[in-house]
What does this fold into?
Amino acid sequence: MFTKILFPTDFSEAAEKAKDKLVEMSRCNIGEIVLLHVVDIRIFSYSTMLDIIEVDNWRKDGKLIKELNRKLNAWKDELEKTGLKVSTEIKEGIPFDEILKYSENNGVTSILLPSVGHGVVERMLVGSTAEKVLRKSKVSVILLR
Amino acid sequence: MFTKILFPIDFSVHARKVKEEILKIKDCGINEIVLLHVINKKLLRYSPISHELTINDMFIDGDIARNAELKLKDWAKDLDNTNITIKYDIVKGNPFDEIIGYSQKEKCTLIIMGFKGLTETEDLLIGSTAEKVARKSKIPVMIIK
It folds into this structure.
């Protein structure tokens, strides 16, 4: 079950906590962990509509990818210290969709998700990615708290 | 995270699958597994034959609980492991409420259950018990597909 764990992260506080839990799991015979960040493409169209061109500029001059890689690698280093085997991946799209696609195309055996919020509003804003992944995933899902 | 696992069982094939998965992760630091069967109050009120005769009336008081206990004992035997304490319990009520409440009362560290249970349908309108547990639980939840 833990042969290949997909750990999507948005670098939020909840994701940070999930990372600590993952360290606890290091004795569970984990084969490999894939740290995935999905750049939510909706922010580009949204900011363009509001005439905020900086966001699009980050993307064009590669600043965004560079920064994301830096963050992912810092997480990777931290996790590897506990003996885990970690790789990183960046995708662009709608988060839940990219998470499911990646998991199906790359032989992922379980998905680890930090889940946030119990309120209705929070659920609609943040928690919905976790809920959609849980519902549509073909492999087991671990929701951390 | 795996210290004290709550394993809600409805005796479906899906729960059986979860049992197999638990056997695979038994070396993850599990100290205790609690098998919980919730007698679904709603199902007991169902009266397929006549309005006066509900499922509940068809059983002599205690029949369901007694049979469930026998089954739970069998399941406990399957999970038997010298290093792990196995307990079982039966409660009556609304499954997801009882599961959440029990996990808090018993200070469990992880709930592990199947995405589907007795309800086989693929597309659920309101969501499965597992989804509700995943949404409301304050401790990590592992959902087996």
Q: What stands out?
A: Chain B touches chain A through 23 residues (CB under 8 Å).
